[in-house]
């Protein structure tokens, strides 16, 4: 939600930000959930969220210049978070599935919004080919140095911090406002609902741990099932570096 706080910091201070009274998904609505509404965005908030694969984005988004539209892609360890979220949203008439079965399905590309591999690589390649339009970030890096990445995001989006703002701690204030600890403990995110007519979509479902590397507590028994396959190895080598866990466990959202 740092994107929202960066873009609206001239409209709201930390005591009046909509992030304090609305679920983040309502502050930056997705066009998957609200695309049929003409007033999808709040006035003065030039942001829309999406899980859509890069190659499936509207042509108007892909073809327009960076002056009119930019894309920020943030990924992290996707599978475990998705597994827990899906379990909470599972209709009571459906049988639960085990972690191992869900893991196999995920590896086979049977996931929301398409195969995780392709989803990540499409945005990664786009960020290499069009760095002025597409910014590719990892949640792990952002969590390790939040101040640095808030400044990078602001610069990329065209909302750079002035020296005066930096001197009064504006960057750190946004980091604090958007931290997992702060947002997850707000009353709206503990008891509210994303959709008023959907009793299952409670806001607390969107907050779990906000920690790095939690996949290791769940996947030790099944992580070697797929990691030796050639197709997997090719993709891991594309994105892996010595400071990050394999992109195999990286989330796109």
From TrEMBL:
<dbReference type="Pfam" id="PF00685">
    <property type="entry name" value="Sulfotransfer_1"/>
</dbReference>
<feature type="domain" description="Sulfotransferase">
    <location>
        <begin position="4"/>
        <end position="228"/>
    </location>
</feature>
<dbReference type="GO" id="GO:0051923">
    <property type="term" value="P:sulfation"/>
</dbReference>
<protein>
    <recommendedName>
        <fullName>Sulfotransferase</fullName>
        <ecNumber>2.8.2.-</ecNumber>
    </recommendedName>
</protein>
<dbReference type="GO" id="GO:0008146">
    <property type="term" value="F:sulfotransferase activity"/>
</dbReference>
<dbReference type="InterPro" id="IPR000863">
    <property type="entry name" value="Sulfotransferase_dom"/>
</dbReference>
<comment type="similarity">
    <text>Belongs to the sulfotransferase 1 family.</text>
</comment>
<keyword id="KW-0808">Transferase</keyword>
<dbReference type="GO" id="GO:0005737">
    <property type="term" value="C:cytoplasm"/>
</dbReference>
<dbReference type="InterPro" id="IPR027417">
    <property type="entry name" value="P-loop_NTPase"/>
</dbReference>
